[in-house]
Amino acid sequence: MSIGTHHLQLHTGPSRDDVRIGLTATAERALQDRAFDVAAAMLGVPGRDHAGAPDAAEALMLQGIVLDFVTRHLPGPGCRLLSEDLRLSMVPAPGDTVRVTGTVTSRPAEDSAVIALVVEAPRGRVAEGAVTVRLPAEPVTLPPADRPDIILHHHRHLEALMERAAAAPSLSVAVAWPCDRDSLLGPLQALRGGAILPILVGPRAAMEHAAAEAGASLDGCEVVEAGTPHEAAMAAVRLCRDGRAAALMKGSLHTDELMAAVVSREGGLRGTRRLSHVFAMDVASYHKPLFITDAAINIAPDLATKVDIVQNAVDTVRALGEKAPKVAILSAVETVNPKIPGTLEAAALCKMADRGQITGAILDGPLAFDNAISRAAAAVKKITSPVAGDADILVAPDLEAGNMIAKQLSYLAGADSAGLVLGARVPVILTSRADSVTSRLASIALARMLAAAAERGGGHA
Q: What is the pLDDT of residues 350-378, one digit of tens each?
């Protein structure tokens, strides 16, 4: 979980002398999906997305609502909970607005009070009961401090991607030089799950040693001997050219070594377009997968290269089921400025889409990052666009910007990611040495879905 803040209004609670029998207060709260998920996360049980989610999480959430009412509304700041008797009648649903009503019914002692509580939702009474609280001797003011706001990291988008990929046929993958733990465990775990049929290209002894250290084995894998990373890259590419493998995957060799074999004019995997890279990012605070391109291949792409970058990403997202992806062409500003070349290219790309030179998507640009992913930010700047605040694809002006966006989302926003090189004859799974096994599995799932879409369409998507 990551924690942000929002400002809390000033509250002052009554002293014990001010709390009278019959004192009443009412408060309402709209229940969000994440309220149920936070309670589930605290208890370590499945969230609302899982059938048969335990009632314990729902009970914990309702108790939290009651405690918030007691400590903020009646009696308010300064009180201490002594006991609680809460009886649940029904479970509210996400989106319900619940109303909590409390009434002071007795004062058992000078410093305590009993408060009767009723919690109601549009469909009926949710709970009722009573709490006993200790009252402060003097009024207590809650300072205008920051109140935490929890963002749950479900990574539900990549999980959904992997679930959908499970319906696709197993993918034969040539893995170049998987000679360390992480680069080997990804393919091996995907093999155990039936996702791929890996062909491991490298020194058998080194790969067997890496597998043994990780408590795994190479059983079920085909092994092609290669003595150096260069030889492994060339052999893995050759397997793809010959049709023995439907995808290529980077192991623990350097990206340059693998890509040199891919782009080789003799024996490589060049297609009709320029190669480009796309990240599929699972950002907890964004409502759908976010695809970022190009953050790994094209350093300073010109307009013609950007056309291929955009079309590669569009075809990929369409292959995943989105009929008309929304593409935001990013810059530092949202207006065309001749002093910022990226804004001119963004405007040109949008016009090219209007004329059919880029197909299958809705483009808008230039858009600043905030306008691309936030409807509120777009509204402030009076931007009316079907893309603003709802982008599927973010097109960076150059590799440096794209790489920084992707890594900021990963390391500051806790995003998980999958990544592919597009535009070659087969999908190229280009993982980083810092990628987790989960990220590698998600990249494999993405390649699996692209290969299945290409098979249906008679060519690489």
A: 999 999 999 999 999 999 999 999 999 99
For 158, phi and psi rounded to 5 degrees? Answer: -70, -35
Number of structural domains in the chain: 2
Structure tokens at 18: 């001010």
Strands (E), 154-252: 171-176, 196-201, 222-224, 247-250
Instruction: Name residue, tokens 């290409």.
Output: 454
Task: Give percent of the chain with pLDDT exceeding 90.
Answer: 64
Q: Is 170 helix (H, G, I), strand (E, B) or coil?
A: coil
Which domain-ending residue is among 88, 120, 138? Answer: 138
Q: Give domain status of residue 378, yes or no.
A: yes
Task: Report the C-alpha gap between 49 and 159 in whole angstroms.
Answer: 12
Containing domain of residue 132, as a range? 16-138
Q: Which two tokens stand for residue 140?
A: 């207590």
Do 415 and 409 form a contact (C-beta atoms < 8 A)? yes
And the tokens for 117? 């509580």
| Closest to 447 in 3D by CA, of 461, 458, 437, 433 | 461
250 token code pair:
């980077």
**Consecutive H or E run containing 365:** strand 362-367
CA 99 and chain centroid, separation: 33
- Coil/strand/helix, residue 102: strand
Q: Helix %, strand %, coil % for the chain, to 5? A: 35, 25, 40
- Cα(31)–Cα(27) distance, rounded to whole angstroms? 13
C-alpha distances (whole Å) from 152 to each of 33, 90, 413, 448 are: 11, 25, 11, 28
| Contact predicate 211/238, CB 8 Å | no
Residues 171, 24: contact at Cβ < 8 Å?
no
Last residue of a domain, one of 138, 159, 175: 138
pLDDT tens for 232-279 read 999 999 999 999 999 999 999 999 999 999 999 888 999 999 999 999
